[in-house]
Protein backbone atom coordinates (compact mmCIF):
# COMPACT_ATOMS: atom_id res chain seq x y z
CA UNK A 1 0.00 0.00 0.00
CA UNK A 2 1.42 3.38 -0.99
CA UNK A 3 1.85 5.90 1.79
CA UNK A 4 0.56 9.38 1.13
CA UNK A 5 2.11 12.63 2.32
CA UNK A 6 -0.78 13.04 4.77
CA UNK A 7 -0.10 9.66 6.37
CA UNK A 8 3.60 10.45 6.68
CA UNK A 9 2.86 13.85 8.26
CA UNK A 10 0.39 12.26 10.66
CA UNK A 11 2.96 9.67 11.75
CA UNK A 12 5.57 12.38 12.32
CA UNK A 13 3.17 14.50 14.40
CA UNK A 14 1.93 11.53 16.44
CA UNK A 15 5.52 10.40 17.03
CA UNK A 16 6.42 13.88 18.25
CA UNK A 17 3.42 14.05 20.59
CA UNK A 18 4.03 10.60 22.07
CA UNK A 19 7.76 11.23 22.35
CA UNK A 20 7.11 14.53 24.14
CA UNK A 21 4.89 12.77 26.68
CA UNK A 22 7.52 10.06 27.22
CA UNK A 23 10.16 12.75 27.78
CA UNK A 24 7.98 14.54 30.33
CA UNK A 25 7.27 11.25 32.10
CA UNK A 26 10.97 10.37 32.22
CA UNK A 27 11.71 13.81 33.68
CA UNK A 28 9.27 13.10 36.50
CA UNK A 29 10.82 9.72 37.28
CA UNK A 30 14.50 10.70 37.16
CA UNK A 31 15.95 12.72 40.08
CA UNK A 32 17.41 16.19 39.49
CA UNK A 33 20.75 16.25 37.73
CA UNK A 34 22.30 16.16 34.30
CA UNK A 35 20.07 13.37 32.95
CA UNK A 36 16.95 15.11 34.24
CA UNK A 37 17.99 18.32 32.46
CA UNK A 38 18.38 16.45 29.17
CA UNK A 39 14.81 15.15 29.38
CA UNK A 40 13.16 18.36 30.56
CA UNK A 41 14.99 20.93 28.39
CA UNK A 42 13.75 21.67 24.93
CA UNK A 43 13.15 24.50 22.55
CA UNK A 44 10.11 26.31 21.26
CA UNK A 45 9.33 26.93 17.61
CA UNK A 46 6.64 29.36 16.61
CA UNK A 47 5.28 32.84 17.10
CA UNK A 48 5.43 34.69 20.41
CA UNK A 49 2.51 36.89 19.38
CA UNK A 50 -0.24 35.73 17.04
CA UNK A 51 -0.39 37.20 13.53
CA UNK A 52 -3.58 39.25 13.08
CA UNK A 53 -4.94 39.91 9.59
CA UNK A 54 -7.67 42.55 9.80
CA UNK A 55 -9.89 42.86 6.71
CA UNK A 56 -12.48 45.13 8.42
CA UNK A 57 -15.24 42.60 7.72
CA UNK A 58 -13.43 39.67 9.21
CA UNK A 59 -10.38 39.42 11.44
CA UNK A 60 -8.17 36.36 11.04
CA UNK A 61 -5.72 35.40 13.79
CA UNK A 62 -2.94 32.88 13.19
CA UNK A 63 -0.57 31.47 15.74
CA UNK A 64 1.31 28.29 16.42
CA UNK A 65 3.92 27.19 18.92
CA UNK A 66 5.63 23.82 19.18
CA UNK A 67 7.75 22.72 22.13
CA UNK A 68 10.28 19.99 21.28
CA UNK A 69 12.37 17.99 23.69
CA UNK A 70 14.81 15.16 23.01
CA UNK A 71 12.21 12.38 23.09
CA UNK A 72 9.82 14.42 20.94
CA UNK A 73 12.49 14.70 18.29
CA UNK A 74 13.29 10.98 18.55
CA UNK A 75 9.55 10.23 18.27
CA UNK A 76 9.29 12.30 15.11
CA UNK A 77 12.21 10.44 13.56
CA UNK A 78 10.65 7.08 14.51
CA UNK A 79 7.31 8.22 13.07
CA UNK A 80 9.02 9.08 9.80
CA UNK A 81 10.80 5.72 9.80
CA UNK A 82 7.55 3.84 10.45
CA UNK A 83 5.71 5.76 7.73
CA UNK A 84 8.20 4.70 5.06
So what's the overall shape?
flat
Radius of gyration: 17 Å
Q: Count of helices?
A: 3
H-E string: HHEEEEH
Proportion in β-strands: 15-25%
Residue runs with pLDDT of under 50 for 5 or more positions? none
Sheet with the most strands, sense and barrel status: 2 strands, antiparallel
Chain-averaged pLDDT: 84
Measure the end-to-end span.
11 Å
Number of domains: 1
The strand count comes to 4
Major sheet: order of its strands?
1-4
Derived structural class: alpha+beta
The percentage helix is 40-55%
Short summary:
The chain is an alpha+beta fold and 84 residues long.
Keywords:
single chain; 84 residues; two-stranded antiparallel sheet; two-stranded antiparallel ribbon; 3 helices
Question: Overview of this structure, please?
Answer:
The chain contains three helices and four strands; from the N terminus they run ααββββα. The chain has 84 residues and is α+β, with helices and mostly antiparallel strands. The protein has a two-stranded antiparallel sheet with strand order 1-4. It has a two-stranded antiparallel sheet with strand order 2-3. The longest helix is centred in the N-terminal third of the chain and has 25 residues. The chain is flat.
